[in-house]
Amino acid sequence: MTDSWATFGTDLHVELRGSGLRSGLMDALREAVRTGRLTPGTRLPSSRSLAVDLGIARNTVADAYAELVAEGWLTALQGSGTRVARRAAPRKPQAGVVRARPPHRRPTYSLHAGTPDLASFPRAEWLKAARRALTAAPHEAFGYGDSRGRIELRTVLADYLARARGVYADPERIVICSGFVHGLMLMGKVLRQRRVREVAVESYGLDVHWNLLTEAGLRTPALPFDGLGSQTGELAALRAVGAVLMTPAHQFPMGVPLHPDRRAAAVDWARGSGGLILEDDYDGEFRYDRQPVGALQGLDPERVVYMGTASKSLAPGLRLAWMVLPEELVGEVIEAKGSVDWVSSALDQLTLAEFIASGAYDRHVRGMRLRYRRRRDQLVRVLAERAPDIRVSGIAAGLHAVLELPPGTEGSVIQAAAWQGLAVEGVSRFRHKDAPTGRDALVVGYATPADSGWAGALDALCRALP
Ligand SMILES: Cc1ncc(COP(=O)(O)O)c(C=O)c1O
Fold first, then answer.
1. Which end of the chain lies in a sparser environment, N or C, as judged by fewer CB atoms within 10 Å?
2. 252 CA from centroid of ligand 1 (Å)
3. pTM of this prediction?
């Protein structure tokens, strides 16, 4: 009997103090309500289960509840149990707490680059995959597991990446991580342990990524950039550089694919110097006018660390990403990850494995590719009509475009957009401090709004442009 009551009801932490059990319990409950720990409407455990938990007689709890009801602290309604009364002791504002100012008006629209259309997350298909994955999961899946990640996911990823991205992938070389940033952190740690001092980066990119490397103790000189992508031929001149971080399939945010000669030069440098290429393939699936540009990793799997993520193809909130490692790095990365590092939930990993294996991932990506392409085409068409002087580039792939602006106008256009209720960023936000000042431009994340907000965002953008 006791056992069954112990698993029934809800948990309530009370510390009985003082002499009498009943009065001690009443004091503890009053105190919990007064301090706001128990909020109005909170359902209390039944007298029976609380009595079992506290090791006291049920009548003692029932009497304490009845008195607190009589005092107005609690209410007891047939069928709804005993709850903290709605009007019980309102919490006083804490002394010294400054009242927050009313928040700034939030922009109505966002064209920030970096997020897919979150309203298009394939909830129904994901739920089906989660159900199938949970049903099939072996008991050991609920344990701590392999720090490389679930073998089921590594196996389907190896097939998918080979098929869709031209990656040479073996499940034994794949490590699942919590987003690309996590993989980059691990690589920063490994490179420092290898006594690397510098990791070259691109002239344009995300400062969070550069900062992660800096925090790992690495300097991040920037490679010069032009219309063909990053000038990888310059790597040889950077003597202290032991690795280079790049977005070869679709430079972020400038949008150009790395020219084949530059790809070859990067691989030649890595082979000749023993350096590593950290390939950030963040939106490789989204290319619109022809086949996606394959991953650089296929050119030399022993010199390239391939990093992919579900953040653009599905949703950043999943925090699921993968690294395909050169064989010599597998042990070091696993060691850097350790057993207590963030490991993605086994259930999410199994769900993604099922999602990919069932074909739902391909269907989702293909469907989204079509939708994003329509948006991109619409962006180009509307700009040609309403802002014909603005040149659009970087549109062959990905989820964002670069809109060139007249010199010196970037700040004022962003401000004008804010007046239109639109949040959008300029290219200077993504420029490395070593890079020469370039053209003024906007980076427009056309995948970001939900369908319902897209037309409004586009109109606000056009109004803000010169
Ligand atoms: C250039 C680039 N790399 C990688 C990522 C993905 O990061 P994560 O997997 O940590 O969400 C993003 C997302 O914004 C990105 O823009």
1. N
2. 9
3. 0.86
